[in-house]
Amino acid sequence: MIPKLKFLVPFSFLCAAPVFAETERQLDAHNHGEAMLNIVMDGKLMELTFISPSANLIGFEHKPKNQEQQAKVDSAKEMLADYTKLFGLPSQAACKPIKSAVHWTFDEGSGHEEHDEHEEHGDHDEHEEHDEHEGAVHSELEAEWRLACEKVDALNSIEVQLFKHFPALEKLHVEAIFADSPLAATLTSDDNLIKRPK
Question: Number of folded domains in the chain?
């Protein structure tokens, strides 16, 4: 089961719960080639959460078994830590990173690979239990980025560049809340632009 997200201001986004729940159901089947991106905008703060089967990003779902596989994990972690390589934001919005966090469910322990402040997240015990079953390993990645944007009105689109760096990713299910405006879309490498509702 995909971990539930912690929103910036939970109460103000209760109305969005059915939308996000539907996206979780879509990925419960653990479909390779598909992933989820949730975006929540609250004032000048924006939080993006990306959840994907590990196979989309590194080609396998078990713990790294050799140096070559570990190098793939390390490379993906490095890529995911830098949101500027993954999302094209209008420069006029003047967005700056506050926090990034990358967690693989096959990682030992419950700690996240984080940059800047550590923030606690929900338990991932259910995922770790999956990893114990050797014949049918299903692991996921959860990456989060929190940004502060000085000029929110200029943030009218987001170009998603995940497809370029992770070719095995075919579909990205996007659910977003911009102020009071919800958005739902499915992106592909040929259609990778999120347009903020007017």
Answer: 1
